[in-house]
Every structure is written in C-alpha cells, then in structure tokens.
Design a protein that fits this description.
Organism: Streptomyces haneummycinicus
Helix content: 25-40%
Protein name: SRPBCC family protein
Distance between the termini: 42 Å
Structural class: alpha+beta
Family: Belongs to the Rv0495c family.
Strand content: 15-25%
Order of helices and strands: HEEEEEEHHEEHHH
Largest sheet: 2 strands, antiparallel
Length: 173
C-alpha cells in the first residue's frame, strides 16, 4: 500500500486514515467498501485515472496487474473450477477447468450484479484473443507448460481458419 499515492488512488486519505480491509459476514478479509464500491475504485473524472487504483499502479510500474491486485480481482473474468471425478476403476482424479466467470458463477445473486460486463457485447471486441491478452493471468493459473500447450492449440485453430464452434452469445459478430 505504500506505493499507492494520492495521485493514483482517489481514496488514499480515506484508506490510510480508516483502513482498506474489512471482514465479510463469514469473517473473511476483503477490500473495504467505500461509498458503494471498492475503496480502490477510482471514480470517473479522477485525474489519476478511472478504475482500479491497484491496476493503475501495476501499469505505472510496468508490472502485470496480477502482481498488485487481490487474487479474486485479477482472475476475473476467468474462473477456475475444481471437480473430483470418480472413475470406474475406483480411482479419483481432480479435474481443473478454466472458463468464463459469468453471472451464474456468483449463484442466485449473480443476476443482480449490474456491473458485470462479460455478457455485454462491448466486452467482446478486443484486438487480441483472450488467450493472448490474458497470457500472464492464464500462465499463473495453469503454469507455463499448460499455457504453452493452450497457446499452441489456439494458434493451430486460428491457422486452420475454421469457424468457431460455439461463439459467445454476446459476441458482436
């Protein structure tokens, strides 16, 4: 937090005076809400930039945002799930999947999340495929060998020029 300065963190005075951590109803630590949002969320019009001040800090320092943001923040909108699979030979394996964290991932309350953007058409217009733009995050989640293999498979798919089997429902295409 020492590297967050008032020029990049709109709520610096509030966060340093009254803290930036709170506990949820289960007693787990979380970033403290302030004025209806995360205390690190810079509002529109702030001279240091709108959005997450921890993200802005990382970019200003030439680092990956996952180095400065809490895990739950940098992983979005990617979701890693775990499922134990019972095989016919009585062995169990842990299947780890990586996919999109959409509103359903938040449970029954997810439909009320008005800020959630991955279902918006505008969220699907980046110049690079997500496996390229999220290289650092996917590598952190999968490991280098896993990411390298994913990249290889995606490059082969793109080179084949085959159509997408199942485009995202919000895709503008």
């Amino acid at each position: 937090m020492a590297r967050l300065t008032p020029d990049i963190w709109q709520h610096h005075a509030e966060g340093t005076r009254n803290g930036w951590v709170s506990e949820d109803e289960d007693g787990d630590r979380q970033t403290r809400p302030f004025q209806g949002s995360c205390i690190f969320q810079n509002r529109p019009g702030f001279a240091g930039g709108m959005g997450c001040s921890l993200h802005i800090l990382a970019l200003k320092e030439g680092r990956e945002p996952l180095e400065t943001k809490p895990d739950v923040c940098w992983q979005l909108p990617v979701r890693r799930t775990y499922e134990w699979i019972d095989r016919p030979d009585d062995t169990r394996v842990l299947q780890v999947s990586i996919g999109e964290y959409d509103r359903r991932g938040w449970g029954s309350g997810g439909h009320d999340l008005h800020w959630w953007c991955t279902s918006a058409t505008s969220a699907h217009g980046a110049g690079d495929p997500v496996y390229v733009s999220y290289r650092a995050e996917l590598t952190e989640l999968m490991g280098k060998a896993g990411y390298d293999r994913l990249s290889e498979l995606c490059e082969a798919r793109l080179a084949s020029q085959l159509p997408l089997l199942a485009p995202h429902p919000a895709d503008p295409a």
